[in-house]
Design brief:
By secondary structure, the protein is an alpha/beta fold. The protein has helices spanning 19-27, 36-45, 61-72, 92-103, 117-125, 144-153, 167-177, 201-210; strands at residues 3-7, 30-33, 52-54, 77-79, 108-112, 132-134, 157-162, 183-187, 195-199, 217-221. The strands form two sheets. A five-stranded parallel beta sheet has the order 3-2-4-1-5, covered by helices on one side. A five-stranded mixed beta sheet has the order 6-7-10-8-9, with helices on both faces. Helix 7 (167-177) packs antiparallel against helix 8. The structure holds S-adenosylmethionine.
């Protein structure tokens, strides 16, 4: 049985792709990726020429069967997503689940660790991270109330993701529900415009509004 390598890729800075990730990507038969355009750019930056196959949130049973057939045909596969560690709030986790369900222990699944935006944010947040709760993205509609209630009631550090389109709305909700809680909001980690904002939700909102709300965000909420 061949191997599925689950590979963490950079969250911005290409220099964060490990040597092991590069040699593994160059050695496999096919790279499974979220968006073939994004991964092709990464691969060509390192002069790696390996066929890619997309696997994303809308992929259905047909795609899973194709991936199973590749493994049954003795092809070694790598799984990457657009950025960071596959499975952490992206479609990478589902295919691993499906393959574990199908092959059980017969399939060797090897992790090649790399960047993860949540862990990167925690490393510089300056808040306790011996214990933390990761909540992914806030739901847009159903479950949004209980998402914020959960943050409010959690006694450990909370980390979650937010996009440029919703960052101000989310900070507004945090300001209303927990005006005194200290936040660390990390924008564009490892990229040119990396900025770390510290303060209450209202303080961070003022800082963001006077600089830029463009980019990708990780929000770290300090414990009660
Ligand atoms: N699997 C990825 C990981 O390991 O972090 C996360 C994928 S999730 C679809 C994308 C979200 O992660 C973004 O919307 C943003 O909230 C966060 N993110 C990814 N890269 C980031 C970066 N460079 N700076 C800040 N947040 C980032």
């Amino acid at each position: 049985m061949p191997t599925l390598y689950v590979i963490g890729t950079p969250i911005g800075n290409l220099q964060d792709l490990s040597e092991r990730a590069k040699t593994t990507l160059a050695s496999v038969d096919v790279v499974l990726c979220e968006d073939t355009r994004v991964t092709s750019k990464l691969l060509s930056a390192f002069d790696i020429h390996v066929p890619t196959l997309s696997y994303h949130q809308h992929s259905g049973a047909f795609k899973t069967e194709k991936i199973i057939a590749l493994l049954e045909g003795e092809k070694n596969l790598a799984l990457v997503t657009d950025a960071g560690t596959p499975g952490i709030s992206d479609p990478g986790g589902r295919i691993v689940e499906e393959l574990v369900e199908h092959f059980g222990e017969e399939l060797t699944i090897t992790p090649i660790p790399g960047a993860c935006a949540a862990v990167t944010a925690l490393s510089i947040a300056g808040v306790p991270a011996d214990e933390f709760v990761f909540l992914g993205f806030p739901p847009h509609k159903r479950g949004r109330q209980s998402f914020f209630e959960r943050i409010f009631l959690t006694h450990s550090t909370v980390v979650f993701y937010e996009s440029t389109h919703r960052i101000l709305k989310t900070l507004g909700e945090l300001a209303t529900r927990m005006p005194d809680r200290k936040l660390v909001v990390c924008r564009e980690l490892t990229k040119m415009y990396e900025t770390i904002y510290r303060g209450t939700a209202s303080e961070v909102t003022a800082k963001l509004e006077s600089s830029s709300i463009k980019g990708e965000f990780v929000i770290v909420v300090s414990p009660l």
